[in-house]
Amino acid sequence: MNSLLMQLRKVCNHPFLLPGADPGMVAGDSSQTTTDETIVTSSNKMILLDRLLERLFKNQHRVVLFSQFTSMLDIFEDYLNLRGYRYVRLDGSSSRTKRNLDIRVFNADGSQVFIFLMSTRAGGLGINAQTADTVILYDSDWNPQVDQQAMARVHRIGQKKKVHVYRLITGDSVEERIITRAEKKLFMDKMVN
């Protein structure tokens, strides 16, 4: 059986994460989808993200967008293609060569890449997105250290801008419980140290 907690997290992120929920899915072939505005309007979190990214793009900000789920990164890719935003992606399946190339492309002077999509747990050492000035945590981890490490990928040597961090949380949901527990873990860590 699927974990109820995991299903609740998927519902908070985007309904298309649930099997059979994507109306653009071509019957019998999960690799082919058609993307339209329902990818945004199906989720209030995506509506908020859409408005936020529109404003950030207009003001020429550079964004690193984190999610726990690689399937959510797939949805982001469909959405970014729909809106015409340039992006690069890093997750556990990215090779070291592709990862290094994408980081260089993103950090290059005059880069046209607006968003760096990243799985929160992917990458390991050497991820430096110091040219970004905005971090968006689309969903949070039970372990607060993972989210802090994700934010630190932008706060690196060479960062010259003030960095804004947005954490998107669905109200009155399992995500609030995750954040509350993570804050308690951080407090305990501080008390022990």
Folded structure, characterized:
It is a single chain. A 5-stranded parallel sheet has the order 4-5-3-6-7, with helices on both faces. It has a two-stranded antiparallel sheet with strand order 1-2. Helix content is 43%, strand content 15%. The N and C termini lie far apart (39 Å). The protein has helices at residues 4-13, 38-41, 44-58, 70-83, 96-107, 144-152, 174-192; strands spanning 25-26, 29-33, 63-67, 87-90, 115-119, 134-137, 164-167. A hairpin with a 2-residue loop joins β1 and β2 (29-33). The protein has 193 residues and is of the alpha/beta class. The chain has 7 helices and 7 strands, in the order αββααβαβαββαβα.
Shape: globular
Question: How many beta-strand runs?
Answer: 7
- Spatial strand sequence of the major β-sheet: 4-5-3-6-7
Tell me about the largest β-sheet: 5 strands, parallel
Strand content: 15-25%
Please report the distance between the alpha carbons of the first and last residues: 39 Å
In sequence order, what are the helices and strands, one letter per element? HEEHHEHEHEEHEH
Helix content: 40-55%
> Radius of gyration over alpha carbons?
17 Å
Unreliable segments of 5+ consecutive residues: none
Contiguous helical run count: 7
Overall average residue pLDDT:
88
**Structural class given helices, strands, pairing?**
alpha/beta
Structural descriptors:
193 residues, two-stranded antiparallel ribbon, 7 strands
